[in-house]
Specification:
By secondary structure, the chain is α/β, with parallel strands linked by helices. 41% of the residues lie in helices and 13% in strands. The strands form five sheets. It has a seven-stranded mixed beta sheet with strand order 11-10-12-13-15-14-19, sandwiched between helices. A five-stranded parallel beta sheet has the order 1-4-5-9-8, sandwiched between helices. Strands 16-18-17-20-21 form a five-stranded mixed beta sheet, sandwiched between helices. α8 crosses α19.
C-alpha cells in the first residue's frame, strides 16, 4: 500500500515560471487541444507549448481509456512526501550523472556516440517508483537514466561509458548498450525502433513462464519499452501494438515526447504526434502527461502501470518533455537553430526547477537529496577511472556463446523439461504429435525423408524434448510452404507456436526477446530471401552476446529455403543470395544443407546452440526425392562434408580437382561427376555445410591431394561467398595451389525470369565440367 500523506503542487505554482520571460509567446495547451508551436522571437525556432492539463481533467481521460472508475483514480491523488523525496533524489541522480558524462566526454574519457537525458528526469523517477527489478525493460540509445532508475549500478554504468572491464558489459557495449541481467535491464539498442519487437518477445516470455508453470501464481510482471515520438512513427510500433493487443501481452509502451526526431521538429515530418492515441485502432489504451510535472507523471504513470499489470494487456504512456541538450555532443545544438529554444527550455521547462518551485518539499530535504546524489555520481566517476580496460582477447572470446566445435549430442536438457511438457501440453495432442514423430522416424529409414519433412521431424523432436523451445512462422497453422512447422501449433498452442504477420523483421525481433529471457526460439522463413526484412534484427542477434559482455546468450535458429537453382524461374527478388548478405554479421553461425540428412542434423544442433544461427536449404529441392536419414544425431555446425573423393589414380596423375559448393550446387556437382570422370578427370566434392565458421581444415586436406580448386558458388561475383573463401584460401593455403582458384559464381546482374537470360547469370553443372577441364589443362 502506498503512503497517503499528500503534498500536491498548485497549478499556479506550476504555471508561474512559464510566464516570466517577457516578449515570449507561451500558449498553455490542454491535452485535447494542443497548440503546435510557440515562437521564440530570437531566431524563430519552433517550440511546442507545455501541456498543463489539470490532474482532474486527466482522470477523466484515464477513466475513458483504462476503464478505471473515478473512485479508483482518486486513490492516485496522493503522492507522499517520502515518495516525492525519493523521486526528486532519482531526478537529481540522473541530472548529475548525465552532467558528469558530458564533462567526461569533453575530457576524452568517454568516446563514440553518447546521448544525454537532461530535461526528462521525471521518466526515470516514474520507473524507480512504479517498476520492479523483475519487470523487463527495453530502452533505446538514450538509456543511462533508465538503467539507473532500474537499479543498475551507477558505478558499472559509468565504467561502461569509460570502456572499462568493470562496466555493465565489460566495455563491449558503451553508452548505447547498457545491459544488466539482475535488474532485467535489456538494452540500450542503437537502431531507432528496433527495440519494439524485442520487448514484445520479452512480454511473450512472461506469458510463456505463466503458461509453463515457471512463474508464481501472483506473477504480475510486465515488459516496458521506451521510445521517442520520432521513433514512434516507425512501422514497428504499429506491428507491436497489433501483436500485443492480439496476444494480450503485458507491455507498456512509454513514449518520451521531446518534440525532436534527432534535431528535426517532429511535427514537421509527422502528421500526428499524438502517439498515445495510436493504439485506438488496436484497442490499446493510452494516456499523455506533462513531463515537467513530477506529481502528475507519478499519478498517471502509476495508473497506467497498474492497468498493464492487472489486465495483462498493453497500454501507451506518452510523456511530454523538453530535452535540454542536443541530440548528442556530436550534434552541437547551435548548428540546427536550437540555441534560443534551449535557452527558453532550460529557464522555463526544467522539471527539477519546476518541482523545486512548487514548495512540495522543504529546502533542507532538497539539499540533502541533492547531496546524496552527488556522492553517488562522484563515486561512479572514481570507480570508472580506476577500473582496468578489458583484456584484448575478450573480443574473440565473445564471438560465440558456444565454441565452434561443440558436440550438441552431449547437450543435456533441463531436468524439469519432461514434467513441464506433461503439464503444459494436452495429452491427446501430445500423443498425436508423437505419432507423427514416430511415423517420420520410420520413414527416415525407408523410403526416407525429403528436406521439408526432415526439418519438421527435427523441430517436433526438439519441441517435445525441450518445452522452452518456441517457433514463429508465417502460415504456420497450415505448415507453411514445405511442412517445416507442421503440427507445431496444433500440439503446443499459440504461445509456443506463433502464426505471424507478414513481416519477418517483426517476428525475428520477437524471437530475440524470447531468446534473451530463457527460451529457444525457431524462426521459419517461408523463403530465406524474405529475411531481408529482418536484417536489422539479425544483425543485433549476432552482436548481442558480445555487446552485453556475455551476459545474454542468444539462442535463435532461423531456417529458410533459399539459394538460386538453375532455371528456377523465380525472378530476381526470390533469387537473391541472402546467405551471402548475412555473412558479414558478426556472431552469426551460418549453415547450409543440400540433403535431408544435413537439414535434420544441422537443425537439431542449431536449436541446441546457445547462439544465433541461420540454416539455409535449397528452395527447389525442398520436396524433392526422399533419402534415408540417421535420426537422433546432431551434426557439427563447423564441418564441411566430403561427399565424393577423387580416385588415387586421378590424384597421382594431377587430374583431380577440389570442388566446393553448397545448396543447389551440390545436386549440380553430383550429376556432373560421371561426365567429369568420363573425360579422365575426378573431383573431391565438398559440401560447405558451414559457411561461417568455415571448415578450412577439410579444404586444406583436400587441396593437399589435388592442388586445384573450383568453387561453384550460389552468390554474386562481388561480395559473394566464393569471394570470401577464395581470398582465405589464397591467404592461408596458397602453397597448396598449383593453379589460380576458379570461381563459378552468379553474375552481378539480377537473376532474370526467362531461362534464355538466366543461363548467363547462374552457373550450373555444365560450367563445372568445363572449369575442371580448364584447371587440369592449366597444370
Amino acid at each position: 500500500m502506498r503512503r497517503v500523506l499528500c503534498v500536491a503542487a498548485t497549478a499556479a505554482a506550476l504555471q508561474a515560471p512559464l510566464n516570466k520571460r517577457p516578449g515570449t509567446k507561451v500558449d498553455v495547451s490542454t491535452l485535447e487541444a494542443p497548440t503546435e508551436r510557440v515562437v521564440v522571437p530570437e531566431d524563430g525556432s519552433p517550440m511546442r507549448p507545455p501541456i498543463l492539463t489539470p490532474w482532474d481533467e486527466n482522470k477523466l481521460i484515464l477513466e475513458e481509456q483504462l476503464g478505471f472508475s473515478q473512485e479508483r483514480l482518486a486513490t492516485y491523488d496522493d503522492v507522499t512526501t517520502d515518495d516525492l523525496s525519493d523521486a526528486y533524489e532519482m531526478m537529481q541522480l540522473c541530472r548529475q550523472f548525465e552532467n558528469a558524462c558530458a564533462q567526461s566526454y569533453m575530457q576524452g574519457s568517454i568516446r563514440g556516440f553518447m546521448h544525454l537525458d537532461n530535461g526528462q528526469e521525471t521518466i526515470p523517477a516514474l520507473v524507480a517508483d512504479a517498476l520492479t527489478k523483475k519487470d523487463i525493460k527495453y530502452s533505446y540509445y538514450r538509456e543511462h537514466t533508465h538503467a539507473l532508475a532500474s537499479g543498475v549500478s551507477p558505478n558499472k554504468i559509468m565504467a561502461e561509458l569509460f570502456a572499462k572491464d568493470g562496466g555493465t558489459c565489460r566495455g563491449t557495449g558503451g553508452s548505447m548498450h547498457i545491459f544488466d541481467v539482475d535488474t532485467h535491464f535489456q538494452g540500450g539498442w542503437a537502431l531507432v525502433a528496433e527495440q519494439f519487437p524485442y520487448a514484445a518477445g520479452a512480454a511473450r516470455s512472461i506469458m510463456l513462464d505463466r503458461h509453463l508453470g515457471l512463474a508464481p501464481e501472483d506473477d504480475d510482471r510486465l515488459a516496458i519499452v521506451f521510445c521517442g515520438e520520432g521513433g514512434s512513427q516507425n512501422g514497428r510500433l504499429a506491428e507491436v501494438m497489433n501483436c500485443a493487443a492480439k496476444e494480450k501481452l503485458p507491455l507498456l509502451i512509454l513514449c518520451i515526447d521531446n518534440g525532436r526526431a534527432i534535431n528535426t521538429f517532429t511535427p514537421d515530418v509527422a502528421q500526428n504526434s499524438e502517439v498515445w492515441k495510436a493504439g485506438a485502432h488496436y484497442g490499446v489504451p493510452g494516456a499523455k502527461v506533462d513531463g515537467t510535472n513530477l506529481q502528475d507523471v507519478l499519478r498517471t504513470g502509476r495508473a497506467v502501470v497498474d492497468y498493464v499489470r492487472e489486465t495483462s494487456s498493453p497500454a501507451i504512456l506518452q510523456v511530454h518533455t523538453y530535452r535540454l541538450q542536443g541530440h548528442s555532443p556530436a550534434d552541437p545544438e547551435h548548428e540546427r537553430g536550437r540555441k534560443a529554444e534551449k535557452k527558453w527550455a532550460r529557464a522555463e521547462a526544467d522539471p527539477l526547477k519546476i518541482f523545486e518551485a512548487t514548495g512540495a518539499l522543504p529546502q533542507d530535504v532538497l539539499d540533502d537529496r541533492k547531496k546524496k546524489a552527488s556522492v553517488v555520481v562522484k563515486e561512479a566517476v572514481a570507480f570508472a577511472k580506476e577500473s582496468p580496460p578489458p583484456p584484448r582477447e575478450l573480443a574473440k572470446e565473445l564471438e560465440f556463446p558456444d565454441p565452434a566445435d561443440t558436440d550438441y549430442n552431449q547437450r543435456e536438457v533441463a531436468s524439469d523439461s519432461e514434467a513441464i511438457t506433461q503439464r503444459s501440453v494436452d495429452a491427446a495432442k501430445l500423443a498425436q504429435c508423437q505419432e507423427r514423430i514416430a511415423m517420420l522416424q520410420q520413414q527416415a529409414k525407408d523410403p526416407g525423408l525429403n528436406v521439408g519433412d526432415a526439418l519438421n521431424l527435427a523441430i517436433l523432436e526438439e519441441m517435445v524434448r525441450d518445452p522452452r523451445t518456441t517457433i514463429h512462422a508465417e502460415d504456420l497453422q497450415a505448415g507453411s510452404s514445405y511442412d517445416i512447422p507442421r503440427q507445431t501449433q496444433q500440439t503446443f498452442g499459440e504461445l509456443r507456436a506463433a502464426d505471424e504477420i507478414i513481416d519477418e523483421g517483426h517476428f525475428i525481433g520477437k524471437a530475440i526477446g524470447e531468446g534473451m529471457n530463457g527460451y529457444r526460439p525457431i524462426v521459419e522463413l517461408m523463403n530465406a530471401n524474405f529475411g531481408i526484412y529482418g536484417m536489422a534484427e539479425l544483425s543485433s542477434a549476432g552482436n548481442t552476446y558480445a555487446t552485453t559482455g556475455g551476459q545474454f546468450k542468444m539462442p535463435l535458429t532461423v531456417v529458410g529455403a533459399g539459394g538460386t537453382a538453375p532455371n528456377q524461374a523465380l525472378g530476381a527478388e526470390h533469387s537473391q543470395p541472402f546467405h551471402a548478405y548475412v555473412m558479414g554479421i558478426p556472431g552469426l553461425k551460418i549453415c547450409t544443407a543440400a540433403t535431408p540428412e544435413g537439414a535434420y542434423g544441422l537443425c537439431k544442433a542449431m536449436i541446441r546452440d546457445d547462439g544465433p544461427g541461420m540454416l539455409f536449404t535449397p528452395v527447389k529441392l525442398m520436396k524433392d526425392e526422399k533419402v534415408p536419414v540417421d535420426v537422433g544425431t546432431c551434426l557439427p555446425l563447423n564441418k564441411a562434408h566430403l561427399m565424393s573423393k577423387a580416385s588415387d589414380a586421378s590424384v597421382s596423375s594431377s587430374k583431380a580437382v577440389t570442388v566446393l559448393t553448397y545448396l543447389h550446387g551440390v545436386r549440380e556437382a553430383v550429376n556432373s561427376i560421371q561426365e567429369i570422370q568420363a573425360a579422365g578427370h575426378d573431383i573431391d566434392l565438398i559440401e560447405l555445410r558451414s559457411l561461417k565458421p568455415l571448415d578450412l581444415d577439410t579444404i586444406r586436406e583436400s587441396l593437399a591431394r589435388t592442388h586445384k580448386l573450383v568453387i561453384l558458388d550460389e552468390s554474386t561475383q562481388s561480395g559473394g561467398v566464393g569471394a570470401s573463401i577464395s581470398a582465405l584460401v589464397g591467404e592461408e593455403l596458397f602453397d597448396e595451389l598449383d593453379a589460380p582458384v576458379k570461381r563459378l559464381c552468379m553474375d552481378d546482374a539480377p537473376v532474370p525470369y526467362a531461362s534464355s537470360m538466366e543461363q548467363a547469370v547462374v552457373k550450373r553443372g555444365s560450367d563445372l565440367v568445363i572449369a575442371v577441364k580448364e584447371l587440369v589443362d592449366y597444370v
